[in-house]
Design goal:
CATH superfamily of the largest domain: ATP-grasp fold, B domain
Radius of gyration: 21 Å
CATH class of the largest domain: Alpha Beta
Number of helices: 11
Number of domains: 3
CATH topology of the largest domain: D-amino Acid Aminotransferase, Chain A, domain 1
Largest sheet: 6 strands, antiparallel
CATH architecture of the largest domain: 2-Layer Sandwich
Structural class: alpha+beta
Shape: globular
Order of helices and strands: EHEEEEEEHHHEHHEEHEEEEHEHEEHH
Length: about 375
């Protein structure tokens, strides 16, 4: 990058996962927050069929309207990363077949949620292309995306996780009775979820053995690998943000607590994203000083155990006796101004715009290749 131009940041969003629309909403918010006097922003959408296109940065285009999520229009001009002698550039192919060069890419902000994005796939592509990017690398992204393997890694680091059973599509087809038996050993009620899903899509609370098969099959509509997890009876759901400092050390935010009411038995998709639902958030969460310190310490340890970079949100169960269990680790959490991660950092003294800028600077300052 020459001194005569601003850093060129490619914001990538959409993708092939069930969280396509949420990714678009996130991108609209982030692009509004990026300072145009400091960065040259190029919006790139990935359509649901995998096509990469030059998208609109219009915030209205990327917002929830009439309870409908936005989506990437795959018929827009196609884009591609092209490696050259001086760096990786972004090229556009217009409808008439002609191509044009949008210039060298200095960093990518991959705002993709779920498989084919948050799971290490795009991170691997960017590593191969020699492009800096925001957030966790290939391994940390992949491990964090798969809730079953996340538990294996955290358990090996002596970090507390809920008991669970992973069921693959092959196992379910070969011996469903054994799968049912392993699940039953956890006790009812249970939660059944896609192992590599997000935004609470495909999750079911199972109260009796007769309902297990339907829940497993519903989760397998989204992922052939399913996680069956013990119910955290009486637990509060509290989240904590982690953000790397310029020297690489993990910093932690004030936590926030989610309280779900109405007809929602857990923090499902509607409670998270659609207006008018009965969800209350305490930000910061009401925790005594000792519990707060333990949670922040555990959040940082979780971040380090998986080898995260940039940012992460660590979700906890807080039990009545004060014990803590790590529920999930999200390497690209929801990122609209009303999402939990930015709210927690705002409560901690870092505004949405400052948070976005910090992440871009971290990406621009780190090297490419093995770290």
């Amino acid at each position: 990058m020459t001194e005569s131009r601003k850093p060129r940041v490619v914001v990538v969003f959409g993708g092939r996962s069930t969280e396509h629309g949420i990714s678009c909403v996130t991108a609209g918010s982030v692009m509004q927050a990026i300072d145009p006097s400091a960065y040259d922003v190029v919006p790139v959408g990935i359509a649901q069929d995998g096509r990469w296109v030059l998208e609109s940065s219009d915030p209205e285009h990327l917002s929830i309207r009439d309870r409908r999520l936005p989506y990437v229009d795959g018929d827009r001009p196609a884009v591609a990363l092209a490696q050259g002698e001086t760096g990786t550039r972004l090229t556009v192919r217009d409808g008439d077949g002609s191509t044009r060069d949008l210039g060298e890419v200095d960093a990518v902000f991959p705002l993709l949620h779920g498989p084919w994005g948050e799971d290490g796939t795009i991170q691997g592509q960017l590593e191969m292309s020699g492009v800096r990017y925001v957030g966790a690398g290939v391994l940390a992204s992949a491990v964090s995306m798969d809730k079953g393997y996340m538990k294996v890694v955290l358990g090996a680091a002596d970090l507390p996780v809920m008991p669970s059973v992973a069921i693959t599509g092959r196992e379910w087809a070969r011996d469903a009775a054994d799968c049912r038996e392993r699940a039953a050993a956890l006790g009812y009620p249970l939660f059944v979820k896609p192992a590599r899903g997000g935004s609470s899509i495909g999750i079911s609370k199972v109260k009796a053995p007769a309902d297990l098969d339907a829940a497993v099959e519903a989760a397998m509509e989204h992922d052939p690998r399913v996680l069956v997890e013990a119910f955290a009876a009486g637990a509060r759901e509290v989240e904590c943000g982690v953000l790397q400092a310029p020297d690489g050390t993990p910093q932690t935010s004030l936590p926030a607590e989610i309280r779900v009411g109405g007809d929602h038995e857990f923090y499902d998709f509607e409670a998270k994203y659609l207006p008018g639902e009965h969800t209350e958030i305490d930000c910061p969460a009401k925790l005594d000083d000792g519990l707060l310190a333990r949670m922040q310490e555990l959040a940082a340890a979780t971040f380090e155990a998986v080898g995260c970079e940039g940012l992460a949100r660590v979700d906890f169960f807080v039990f009545p006796d004060g014990s803590l269990v790590v529920n999930e680790l999200n390497t690209m959490p929801g990122f609209t101004p009303t999402s939990m991660y930015p709210q927690m950092w705002a409560a901690s003294g870092l505004s949405y715009g400052e948070l976005v800028d910090r992440l871009l600077q971290l990406a621009l300052d780190r090297g490419t290749g093995l770290r």
